[in-house]
Amino acid sequence: xxxxxxxxxxxxxxxxxxxxxxxxxxxxxxxxxxxxxxxxxxxxxxxxxxxxxxxxxxxxxxxxxxxxxxxxxxxxxxxxxxxxxxxxxxxxxxxxxxxxxxxxxxxxxxxxxxxxxxxxxxxxxxxxxxxxxxxxxxxxxxxxxxxxxxxxxxxxxxxxxxxxxxxxxxxxxxxxxxxxxxxxxxxxxxxxxxxxxxxxxxxxxxxxxxxxxxxxxxxxxxxxxxxxxxxxxxxxxxxxxxxxxxxxxxxxxxxxxxxxxxxxxxxxxxxxxxxxxxxxxxxxxxxxxxxxxxxxxx
Length: 298
Prior knowledge:
Elements lengths: L4 E5 L4 H12 L3 E6 L8 E5 L4 E2 L9 E4 L12 H24 L6 E7 L10 E2 L9 H11 L2 H5 L3 E7 L1 E3 L4 H11 L4 E3 L5 E2 L1 E3 H13 L5 E5 L5 E2 H12 L5 E3 L1 H8 L3 H5 L3 E2 L2 H5 L9 H7 L2
Helix pairs in contact: 1-6, 2-3, 7-11
């Protein structure tokens, strides 16, 4: 991609901050969407849950990337917190899509976050982007989240959805909690360990988003997961090998349900998701296997 002006919502999050570092290192101009008063030309004000965006600040952007949303794993899913999870994603996406559609010269591409939670519980069944949505809070959320981008797509903007898996990083997300446990020798399988975890290294997550930004003709959903999902037991063993720690412990499913509430379905549930469309588009994973992804996380 030539030197571009790219707006990023969710620029302070795990994936967003890594994407911004990558883009700026390559000389692109990044405009961050912020909820407070902007501090200079590199920031644009928005209120995702109020569906308000300073549309003028998006003028001249070649691309808009929306990775905003309150953390899914940050706390127990009370009804109030579930409402925040939903509004931060659905209303934020609608606000940006409407702002993009209103521009005299809209961006070439709108990349909007989504999640592999779209598919719900899949057991050991392999699913790609052609699979229908599952049932429950996360699948319903993802369907609404993606549908909210309709104004951008209808305005002729190439619109992409990144159905991201579990990101392997020390800096946040599920793995941000796992690394300290394993380093302390307290790592172990969760539940019976037979559930599939579809993971992706943070490096490959960012590289995939940039591939989707750069490659004309790509639109619709893309699973951002490594090609070989593994069971929680297999991942636990790999973490132990890489970090040279024992992994003999296990956390019983009832305990997880008590501690995590509805969120426990995220770690006890099984999702065997593969990146069919991403591979077909010519993307090459730097860390397709779990041991490499864990080592890359430092």
